[in-house]
Amino acid sequence: MKHTLVRPDGTTGQSHDFDGMPPLISPNKGRWLPDNPPAFDTLTSTLQVVTPIAADATEIPYAIVPRPAQQIVFNLTNVVQAYLDATARTRNYDGILSLCSYAASTNPTFGAEGLAGVAWRDAVWASCYSILAAVQAGTRTVPTADELMAELPAMVWPA
């Protein structure tokens, strides 16, 4: 289990994983506390240790701190871009840009896939930006990455 050293002034020091109980140390050097950070959405929040740590604390205290709005937008759009690229790679394209470049291909299969990719990419970004606009307007909460992905249009590959 992970433990973190808490100094007498309430600041944190090194962390270690111990099998069982951590070793005893001199009280004037500090004490080991269990370090079990809470689960949180890394796209929309960060985690900070609350210091100084109280003398009667039984584990490391954390605060979940919201990220600035522009960082959340940046993180969520990166998730969408990765989704577009990963989907294109399922058909052996380098990414969404590569897939879309085939829209003008003279090969019927590649051309059809490229056109479908362009239409899908446009629909995904339109949906993404609509969702983000609603978040910024305060009419909905910030979606998690999984929630955002579930709301985006699915790629329909041509037959």
Structural class: alpha+beta
The termini sit apart by 52 Å
Q: State the oligomer.
A: single chain
Provide the spatial order of strands within the biggest beta sheet: 2-1-3
Instruction: Please report the number of helical segments.
Output: 4
How much helix, percentage-wise, in residues?
A: 40-55%
- Computed Rg: 24 Å
- Which geometry do the CA atoms define? elongated
Unreliable stretches (pLDDT < 50, length at least 5) are: none
Determine the strand fraction and express it as a percent band. Answer: 15-25%
SSE pattern: EEEEEHHHH
What would your notes on this structure say?
It is a single chain. Helix 1 (69-89) runs antiparallel to helix 3 (108-137). The longest helix is centred in the C-terminal third of the chain and has 30 residues, at 108-137. This protein has 159 residues and is of the alpha+beta class. The protein has a three-stranded antiparallel sheet with strand order 2-1-3, with no helix packed on it. The radius of gyration is 24 Å and the shape is elongated. 40% of the residues lie in helices and 16% in strands. The model has no long low-confidence stretch (mean pLDDT 94). It has four helices and five strands, in the order βββββαααα.
Give a brief outline of the structure.
The chain is an alpha+beta fold and 159 residues long. It is 40% helix and 16% strand.
List the helices and strands and how they pair.
Elements: E1 2-6, E2 12-17, E3 31-34, E4 45-49, E5 62-66, H1 69-89, H2 96-101, H3 108-137, H4 145-151
Antiparallel strand pairs: 1-2, 1-3, 4-5
Helix pairs in contact: 1-3
